[in-house]
Design brief:
Number of helices: 2
Largest sheet: none
Distance between the termini: 17 Å
Number of strands: 0
Number of domains: 1
Order of helices and strands: HH
Length: 58
């Protein structure tokens, strides 16, 4: 898998997590554990996106 396709895959997963977080947050009684898990995963993906971008430019 090329770095560019990896980056696109990560961005897609990041956007999906963003939608999941928004959907959970809109529920009448959001699950705080689920929100925390989703947010941690979203942050992990953001960091991986940055590392991949850096690798692509070197």
């Amino acid at each position: 898998m090329s770095l560019q396709s990896r980056l696109e895959s990560l961005k897609t997963r990041h956007a999906s997590l963003e939608r999941s977080i928004a959907a959970e947050d809109q529920r009448p009684m959001p699950d705080s554990d689920a929100l925390s898990r989703l947010k941690r995963e979203k942050l992990r993906l953001k960091e991986e996106i940055e590392r991949t971008r850096h690798a692509a430019h070197n």
